[in-house]
Amino acid sequence: MAFYDLVKTDREALVLQISTRVDHDFQTENKENMHRYFSDGDTYIRKTAYLAVGRIYLANVSMRSLIIVALHELFSDTDAKVRQTVVNAAGEIGKYDFNAVIHFFDQGLFDSHHSVRNAVIGSMKKMGEKNPAPVLDWSRRYLHHPDKEIRREICHGIELRGRNYPEDILPLLRELQFDKTKRVRWTLVHVLGQIG
Predict the structure, then answer these.
(1) How far apart, in whole angstroms, are the C-alpha atoms of residue 173 and residue 84?
(2) What sign does the dihedral 107-113-114-116 (CA atoms) show?
(3) pLDDT tens by residue, 13-50
(4) What angle do CA 95, 110, 73 make, to 5 degrees?
(5) Cα separation values, 38 from 35, 41, 47, 80, 87, Å
(6) Phi and psi (nearest 5°) for 42?
(7) Residue 50 to residues 57, 78, 149, 184, Cα–Cα distance (Å)
(8) pLDDT of residue 138
């Protein structure tokens, strides 16, 4: 049964169960439950799991290195849903501690599966709202990357920050204004439209 097919009380119980089991995995240095939830076909199960990772990381300073190690191990999984969920979990952590998870984004930008690359974009958006300085500094490194898709993803990823703080991203967008790739320019126009 899908997450939103459940009644509200059953969803709340499932959220608690997932959070408890993910926490147990970290406590026991196991990844069985995390892998099960990270690979689930239901987007909302995966979301519940990655939100739980973010909450556990924030609340348990002593477990942070174990959490990063577990995510790193899961990030090598052949299942794109697992890698996508790792990036989303890293995005939750990156809202507070971007330096701890920067390597997930460095790798995720180049993942072979579009869902993982899209998770990088989504994570950039949410991290840019809460922790913009390191995210924008990191983004700047990829603005002139030889791969047009990397430039496009970076442009798209900084969009949300620009809606409320255009002054933060306009200098970065200005660097793309003469990009020779139509797809990058279209993304630039879209982002400018969203912040205008």
Answers:
(1) 26
(2) negative
(3) 989 999 999 999 999 989 999 999 999 999 999 999 99
(4) 65
(5) 5, 9, 8, 10, 11
(6) -90, 115
(7) 11, 18, 26, 30
(8) 97
| The pair of three-digit structure tokens given for residue 90, joined into one six-digit string | 């890293």
Q: Comparing 101 with 194, which gets the higher pLDDT?
A: 101
Query: What is the pTM assigned to this prediction?
Result: 0.93
Place of tokens 């973010």: 54
Mean pLDDT of 54-69: 96
Mind giving me the DSSP string for the chain? --GGGS-HHHHHHHHHHHHHHHHHHHHHT--HHHHHHHT-S-HHHHHHHHHHHHHHHHH-GGGHHHHHHHHHHHTT-S-HHHHHHHHHHHHHHHHHHHHHHHHHHHHHTT-SSHHHHHHHHHHHHHHHHHSHHHHHHHHHTTTT-SSHHHHHHHHHHTHHHHHH-HHHHHHHHHTTTT-S-HHHHHHHHHHHHHH-
Residue closest to 81 by CA, chosen among 124, 21, 29, 34: 34
7: left (phi over 0), alpha (psi -120 to 50) or beta: beta
Length of the chain: 196
CA distance 25 to 33: 7
User: What distances in angstroms separate CA 86 from CA 21, 47, 99, 115, one per listed residue?
Assistant: 16, 10, 16, 12
Domains of the chain: 3-132 (1.25.40), 142-196 (no CATH)
Q: Token pair of 190, please?
A: 């879209």
